[in-house]
Specification:
The complex is a heterodimer of chains A (113) and B (111). Chain A has no helices and eleven strands. In chain A, strands 2, 4, 5, 6, 9, 10 and 11 form a seven-stranded mixed β-sheet that branches. In chain A, strands 1-3-8-7 form a four-stranded antiparallel β-sheet, with no helix packed on it. Chain A has 113 residues and is mostly beta strands. Chain B contains no helices and eleven strands. In chain B, the strands form two sheets. In chain B, strands 2, 4, 5, 9, 10 and 11 form a six-stranded mixed β-sheet that branches. Chain B has a five-stranded antiparallel β-sheet with strand order 1-3-8-7-6, with no helix packed on it. At the A-B interface, strand 5 and strand 10 of A face strand 4, strand 5, strand 9 and strand 10 of B.
Chain lengths: 113, 111
Amino acid sequence: NAGVMQNPRHLVRRRGQEARLRCSPMKGHSHVYWYRQLPEEGLKFMVYLQKENIIDESGMPKERFSAEFPKEGPSILRIQQVVRGDSAAYFCASSPQIEEKLFFGSGTQLSVL
Amino acid sequence: GENVEQHPSTLSVQEGDSAVIKCTYSDSASNYFPWYKQELGKRPQLIIDIRSNVGEKKDQRIAVTLNKTAKHFSLHITETQPEDSAVYFCAVYNYGQNFVFGPGTRLSVLP
């Protein structure tokens, strides 16, 4: 089992560009969570998805941010028109069912110039 | 929504001593409580978890205790080693919605 795979590991964007972060959950896991982490800070919940459905997006800004988890393929976190304040580590985690342990990916470090 | 607090925010112990980190939560309906360890520049990794139907769980040098009435649970690390130095996060499952993480505790084990 390859674990939760995130790519890219590092992403550099200029202000106003789009950032697309990908997450492939562990095999057999249908629940995906995205978290954002600033340096020296905690994990801030963004969005929780199951296959083809957004279950909870209460932590995700309504503008510029969107997420999907299609029937086939990885989950995508998309940030449009990035600003410097979007610079952070974005972690994806998956679990096999609700109220079960989360397995984290290695994260994507987004840097906005 | 769920509110999760963690204390202390930083903790320094001598190698071989014990470390205790406490986590409090607000939603009495929560039933699953994991602890994660994050080393610098790495992903959070689960180290131990507990469900509300038990009061204590132990795995070698690590244990977790839960007081559901008082809505708090604690991580206990005995015989600390330098490799235990990391940031530790507690989490609470907000049923049907998401995991809420505490702000973290930075543990330093001094040789």
